[in-house]
Design goal:
The structure is a single chain. Helices cover 35% and strands 19% of the residues. The protein is an alpha+beta fold. Residues 87-110 are annotated as: Disordered. Residues 322-433 form the Cyclic nucleotide-binding domain. This is Cyclic nucleotide-binding domain-containing protein 1 isoform X4.
Length: 458
């Protein structure tokens, strides 16, 4: 019986396959042994007795517990490597007749920038900046508008201004830091007249001749010479070349010429006459670069500080116990007379039996109240001795005041006031307080009412 076509095709295909040789055998890939497994311990653990025997359930359980106990030991723990401890070598003292080796400079033989700088006369990469470079950098910063300067540039200007004695002797560090954010540089050609009645000027480059010989301080009215060379400028520039420049430059006693780092002008804004204008004016002898601190900026800064200080004084008085109901207008009159003063620890502010010369409001710290107490001490039968001691009766803490009754009524103190630690007070002197005739009655009424309620007389 003939086969169908499909089985015949399959049969012929199977016969053909038998004539084809089998494919070559491929070797299995080698297993990579782990670095963190102890294979010797693993082999011993797998051949542990009792795991494969079926004698009793107790022996199998004990073998199982032993296997679980020994199982973590097949894993190797990674060793922690501690950093090396470098021993500090002792510095050897050079023997006599030998020179100490100098630290080796970095090899710059292949650095083209070094050779270019040397050829042009500039400093190398390892030398500090010279004074001329710092001055050029300072002038470049001042050419920018203050709003375009970076924080680093503002700090550089502040450091330079701190080296000028005419500024540091009359302005606080905080005021100088604030003013340094608005200073500018002006360029004046030879023969120009610079009127310094609208600010304080510092000559950075060039020279000028004053129209008058005498000059005033930038704030006070005392006459003094404005030509000044900063004595502390060497602290900002640690270059030997600049020290030589400072040795050559000196404060002239007879020569009225204003040279580099000389100052003129004022920070006080007042109505000035023509003679006052000439007093602050100079004529440039050559092209000059002059730094200007506007007087209006200083006036604005001073007014803002006065407002903040008056606000702090008013807040202090308002927090004192018997001033809480006082009207703001009356407290403003006291604020105008207040001065800040600090006392060290253990300072006797007023002694018992004396009249104090000021009214005090404690801002920080505290004061102890002492009173003289006379006691009798028995020495022998029928004999006693009087012994006088200062006994602490209490404390005056922050936001408390004293001295009003003693000043206004000229009544001596019945106790002694001594500072317990450093105390900052706002004080009003008696000569200023007696000028407040309108506030005197309210002052007394409030103080007497407070004394009646508290039973305290200071």
């Amino acid at each position: 019986m003939p086969l169908p076509s499909l089985p015949a095709a399959i049969l012929s295909h199977m016969i053909a396959i038998n004539n084809v040789p089998p494919p070559p055998l491929h070797s299995l890939p080698k297993l990579k042994m782990s670095k963190y497994i102890d294979y010797g311990q693993l082999n011993a653990l797998c051949h542990m007795r009792g795991l494969q025997s079926s004698q009793s359930s107790y022996s199998i359980l004990s073998a199982h517990n032993m296997f679980i106990k020994q199982y973590p030991k097949i894993f190797l723990k990674k060793k922690t490597r501690l950093p090396k401890l470098f021993k500090q070598e002792e510095k050897r003292e050079p023997t006599e007749g030998t020179e100490e080796l100098q630290p080796q400079q970095p090899d710059d033989s292949h650095n083209i920038a070094i050779h270019v700088k040397k050829a042009r006369g500039g400093p190398t990469l390892y030398e500090p900046k010279k004074f001329e470079e710092k001055l050029v950098e300072f002038l470049d910063i001042l050419k920018k508008l203050p709003i375009y300067r970076t924080l680093r540039e503002h700090r550089t200007v502040w450091k330079m201004l701190k080296t000028i004695p005419d500024l540091t002797s009359q302005l606080t560090d905080e005021h100088l830091k604030t003013l340094s954010r608005s200073v500018i540089s002006e360029t004046w050609v030879k023969g120009s007249t610079v009127v310094g009645n609208d600010g304080f000027y510092i000559i950075l480059k060039g020279s000028a001749r004053p129209q008058t010989k005498a000059y005033k301080d930038l704030i006070d009215e005392n006459e003094s010479t404005s030509s000044f060379i900063p004595q502390s400028f060497q602290g900002f520039v640690s270059n030997e070349d600049f020290k030589n420049i400072l040795a050559e430059m000196h404060t002239p006693s007879c020569d009225p010429m204003l040279r580099q780092w000389s100052t003129f002008g004022t920070l006080e804004v007042t109505a000035q006459t023509e003679s006052d204008t000439k007093e602050y004016s100079v004529i440039t002898e050559e092209d000059c670069e002059i730094l200007k601190i506007p007087a209006k900026d200083y006036v604005r800064l001073k007014s803002e500080n006065i407002k903040l200080e008056n606000k702090e004084k008013m807040k202090l008085i308002h927090k004192c116990p018997y001033y809480e109901e006082w009207p703001t207008l009356s407290i403003c009159e006291l604020v105008a007379l207040i001065k800040w003063k600090k006392f060290p620890p253990g300072y006797v502010i007023v002694e018992s039996g004396k009249i104090i010369s000021f009214v005090a409001y404690i801002n920080s710290g505290y004061c102890n109240i002492y009173r003289n107490i006379v006691g009798l001490m028995k020495l022998q039968p029928k004999k006693v001795k009087k012994n006088q001691k200062l006994v602490c009766m209490g404390k005056l803490n922050e936001k408390e005041s004293f001295g009003e009754i003693s000043v206004l009524l000229q009544v001596p103190f019945t106790c002694t006031i001594v500072t317990g630690k450093e105390v900052e007070m706002a004080i009003i002197e008696d000569k200023d307080l007696f000028g407040l005739k309108d506030s005197k009655c309210g002052y007394l009424d409030g103080r007497e009412k407070y004394n009646q309620n508290s039973g305290k007389q200071l």
